[in-house]
Design goal:
Blueprint: H1 3-28, E1 65-72, E2 75-76, E3 79-82, E4 88-92, E5 105-113, E6 126-139, E7 143-144, E8 147-157, E9 164-168, E10 175-177, E11 180-181, E12 187-194, E13 196-202, H2 212-246
Antiparallel strand pairs: 1-2, 1-5, 3-4, 4-8, 5-6, 6-7, 6-13, 8-12, 9-10, 9-13, 11-12
Length: about 250
């Protein structure tokens, strides 16, 4: 057997065994396979408002965060904000909240939301983690601020790499906004002025491999691929052996 055929056969056998082992683990055990985070070193487990079944036992629910910023005669100063778990990070530039007569502070609230309780996303897209409701109010008086005077930078961390970022003022109708994928991370960055909902979306259903919703089709298809790889390796081996016998 020449080197190329030997490598091909070896690769086919190794790939087949890997696929079989992975699929048997997924299909026959209760051990969850978590969505993969990119980057160096382990990432903190995603904190779901409503986790997929395989994550319920170990999920730590996210919490809503409300922060208070002082207002100066020129408006708010540069301030950080976001969710307490770091899954949504905000940077408010100086002057994002203009000064307002009779008001001395601004309350910025970030509330994680279950996307299933909001309006449907566009066809072909699926929620990638939590939605986040971002609201702001002048105090005293709790007067709603509909939009910032300067763009607010946002970084949204997701369970898997997303393909788009959506926004909504009412949680019912979604609009796509420009975003940029952050290299080596399952996260996207954007900027916005209008307060409301933010939701990252993927082009696949984001669930744990091994949950009942994804196993029924993945397992037989994967085993079929593994069988084809093994068959190809066997054909190469038998063909080479026949040539050696004939010579």
């Amino acid at each position: 057997m020449n080197l190329n055929r030997r490598l091909a056969a070896g690769f086919g056998v190794a790939a087949s065994l890997y696929v079989v082992a992975a699929l048997v683990t997924i299909g026959t055990t209760s051990h969850p396979l978590r969505p993969l985070y990119e980057g160096i070193g382990p990432s903190a487990p995603y904190r779901w408002v409503h986790p997929p079944p395989a994550f319920k036992a170990t999920n730590t629910p996210p919490v809503a965060v409300t922060e208070s910023f002082d207002l100066t005669p020129s408006g708010s100063q540069e301030e950080p904000g976001g969710s307490g778990d770091g899954q949504l990070a905000l940077t408010l530039p100086a002057g994002a909240m203009p000064a307002s007569a009779g008001h001395s502070t601004v309350l910025l609230a970030v509330t994680p939301m279950d996307p299933a309780k909001l309006g449907p996303v566009p066809a072909g897209l699926f929620p990638d983690g939590n939605a986040y409701l971002v609201t702001a109010f002048y105090e005293p008086g709790h007067v709603a601020i509909p939009a910032a005077a300067q763009p607010i930078d946002a970084v949204v961390r997701t369970p898997v790499s997303s393909v788009a970022l959506l926004t909504s003022t009412d949680g019912k109708t979604w609009t796509r906004i420009p975003d940029q994928h952050i290299p080596t991370q399952a996260a996207v960055s954007t900027s916005f002025t209008t307060f409301g909902y933010l939701l990252a979306v993927a082009n696949v259903v984001v669930v744990a491999p091994g949950s009942s919703s994804g196993t029924s089709l993945v397992l037989p298809v994967g085993l079929g691929i593994a069988a084809l790889l093994l068959l190809g390796a066997a054909v190469i081996w038998r063909s080479d052996r026949r040539r050696r016998n004939e010579s």
